[in-house]
Structures are given as C-alpha cells and as structure tokens.
Design goal:
The longest helix has 21 residues, at 76-96. The chain has 2 domains: 6-201, Alpha-Beta Complex (2-enoyl-CoA Hydratase, Chain A, domain 1); 205-250. The chain is globular. Helices cover 45% and strands 17% of the residues. The chain is built from 10 helices and 10 strands. The chain has 260 residues and is α/β, with parallel strands linked by helices. The protein has a 6-stranded mixed beta sheet, sandwiched between helices. A 4-stranded mixed beta sheet has the order 4-6-8-9.
Length: 260
Amino acid sequence: MNFENVLVSTEGHICYITVNRPHKLNALNRLTIRELSQAMKDASSSPEVRVIILTGAGEKSFVAGADISEFADFSDQEGQNLSETGHQILFNLIAEMQTPVIAAINGFALGGGLELALSCHIRVASDNAKLGLPEVSLGLIPGYGGTQRLTLLVGSGNAMELITTAGMIDAHEAHRIGLVNHVCTQTELKSKCAEIAMRIVRNSPTAVSAAMRAVSSVYTVDVDGFQVEIEAFGSCFGTDDFKEGTTSFLQKRKPRFTGE
C-alpha cells in the first residue's frame, strides 16, 4: 500500500517503517497517525515479518512531536477525542503488538514523538538524539501515553522531572535512566537496530510472541502476570516451533523455525 507520509520496505524478515515528513521534522498529524496504524497492522499480519524497525526520515528528527497547527483551536472535548483516538489506533496498537517493534531514534524525539518511541518495545538512540515531553510549556500534558509509559520505564522521579520541567535530555542521559536500550552514532543506527532485529529473527516467532504477552501483562491492571506466563509457557508446547527447537537442540543443529 502506498502512503503519503509513511515509507515501508522489507529486508528479509525485517520491516522498516519510516515517518516521512522531514520538512515538518516528521511531526505527527492525524493522517500520519492513521497511516502508521495501517502500516503497523500490515506488517504485523505478514507471516514473513518478524521484527519492525520504526524511524524518521532525514538526519534531524525521529518525530519532533505532534503537529500543533491541527489542534491549536480545539475545545476540551475535541482534545480528549484526539488523545483517545491516538491511543486506540496507534500507540496502544504498537505497545500491544506481538511483533517486536524497535524504535530507531535519530535526532529529536519530542512530545508525541517520544510517546511513539515509548510505545515501542526496544529503543535505540543515535548520539545526536534529544528526547523530551515539553507539553506543559504549551499548557498541555502528554496525551498519547507519555505520563504512564515513561513512569513505568524510568520511575516516577525521573518521569516527574522530565515532564514538569518540559526539559530535553540527550541520548546518554536517556540511556542512564533506562529510557533507551542502546546509544550509537547516527551512521551506525540502522545497523545496530538490524543487529538486534536479527538476533530476534533467529528465535522462534511463536515463543517471542508468547514472551511478549507475558512481559506486557506486567503493565495491565487486574491481570495476574504469573498466570499469563504459565498459560503462555504451556501454549508453546503445542507449537511446531517447540518441536523443532527441542529436536534441533538434541540433534546439535541450528533450528529452522517456521512460526507455527
């Protein structure tokens, strides 16, 4: 499918999804959010795709926030609807996907852009990255999951400071507080993400998905994560991947997983 603001390409089992609005520092408008949602659904439903790498076009920005011009005159109800729709069609969609999504953060990841990265499962930042949630400087708060996901990731103290000061931090500080998994040079960003993706690709897709369900249950209210783990563990025994994994181990050969 062709999109106006999103580029999609596939290399082997890795799907690259790129926000392509460099003239707007890849800011999220409503069209881009809808297109990203569809691109994510398409990739996650493909049996060939085992990892998704999400990034922004150009060298200046991953996603520099939401497109403020679209909602500057919204009423309170329109603002609530904007947030709720974004949660439903994109940010929660990514967070709840069972195909791993790696955020390749190049340059600015601010506001909705950082929230987009927070919804991904793994984050890698180039050493020129600047990350922050500056919404309070506009009379707003983060509205696409930032108050929740950032707090769960880095703790309430770090989240409170970052959100209430509307400050930006660099990639190395983001790594220190656990906001990003890795920091590398900008030229190494794609290859570092691809390296992580290939390490995932070598494993059983059914087991990876089961593990993601179990890990994600930690953040779900009123869900017993230990029970989710028990059930996900048991479900693995009924898969062809389990049979292949154990057989290849006993035969001392590399497994050939099919994702079934």
